[in-house]
Design goal:
Protein name: Biotin carboxylase
Keywords: ATP-binding, Biotin, Fatty acid biosynthesis, Fatty acid metabolism, Ligase, Lipid biosynthesis, Lipid metabolism, Magnesium, Metal-binding, Nucleotide-binding
Strand content: 25-35%
Oligomer: single chain
GO molecular function: ATP binding; biotin carboxylase activity; metal ion binding
CATH topology of the largest domain: D-amino Acid Aminotransferase, Chain A, domain 1
GO biological process, one term: malonyl-CoA biosynthetic process
Distance between the termini: 55 Å
CATH architecture of the largest domain: 2-Layer Sandwich
Catalytic activity: N(6)-biotinyl-L-lysyl-[protein] + hydrogencarbonate + ATP = N(6)-carboxybiotinyl-L-lysyl-[protein] + ADP + phosphate + H(+)
Low-confidence stretches: 452-458
Length: 458
Amino acid sequence: MARSFDTVLIANRGEIAVRIIRACREAGLKTVQAYSSADADTLPVRMADEAVLIGGPKPAESYLNTGALLQAAAQAGAGAVHPGYGFLSENADFADAVVAAGLVYIGPQAEIIRMMGDKVRARQCAKQAGVPVIPGSEGVVSTEAEALAVAAEIGYPVLIKAAAGGGGRGMRVAQDASELRDKLAGAMNEAQAAFGSREVYLEKFLERIRHIEVQVAGDGNEVIHLGDRDCSIQRRHQKLLEEGPAVALDHALQEEIRLSARTLAASIGYRNVGTVEFIVEPRSRQFYFIEMNTRIQVEHPVTELLTGVDLVKMQLAIAAGLPLSVRQEDVRLHGHAIELRINAENPAKGFIPCAGRITEFAMPSGPGVRVDTHAYAGYELPPYYDSLLAKLLVWGRDREEALDRLRRALDEARIEGIATTLAFHRQLLREGDFLRNDTHTRFIKEHMYGKHPMRHLL
């Protein structure tokens, strides 16, 4: 069913807001940027057709304030709301409120957000669809005795995970029963603080794994996949580098994982773009579903470089009620793409976030280079939000060319005034195992901190 709108309220900030504005402009849509008092001088506010102040600097006063966002949409005459990623992008109640206000929500159905946001229900959906899941509890564990019984059955080490969680928050690894007793309450408390729910569940903790995700898109009738991305370079479960395709896996295993993602999304009648995430044990070739993100991903440009498909414009079209413009047989992956997340963080001090004024900001360009950012020289980076400054992407005919291009691009990049992860990324490109694509999700902790504490990155 067609859902007409000509103006989109952007319920987000930073580089993703810039990305949405550009897609809307190409699609002939007007944009309204909702902004906090801390973001009055940001690039999205300057670029949008209109900007509306929605509250104070703290997220609860602005980007997490449903009432203020809906009021801004009404004030500006917006017919649709794009939540971006983070903030309210996976909040089913927000999606319901947008629709109840007579607006189009540029994302999946609220019930699907609710279902996939509940990690226990998501596991159950995956099992019903025939997609392998990690051995673990069948539902939430409410008591220490219940947790100990599950752990004894699946074997240590085990991972305690927030049922309503994501992004690594509310997670603890227990190597034995004593650690499980010590860490269970802490995981529950963190889950309550981060997600408003103390519910947790247990999974078998697997080491030396790769984190692989598959980009999917659906219009409510058809679902396609647009290839995979390897997101194994992480710290504290937060991704720092993503690349695609996942060439460390053989082609048959890649296709099996992609088909599983498409099958799961189709089984729930998925609409809009999303990402199905897996962990993979390369030696055994076993893979397991871990979660589905019902929103645009930070690393979506990797897929755009590989396929030539504008995923944000695809979101807009699906939200307007149009069928998918790309069929599965039309999807082709060309070359290799890598994304670096340039964060305002100090790697030598445990990646602590850094706020302040950027005195110099020079990003690379040239063949095969893309930069998505909201930053500029003179920008005062506020301390209230995510530390992501820019996404530096490169494309090459193969991984080797992409790495060569990435070295060149990093040599050109210069940010002064605040600490960033640029030096960390330059060091990463000197790591032999990374260059050989022999990595896993604990690579940074074991290889980079283990061999040199990074004091030289100050």
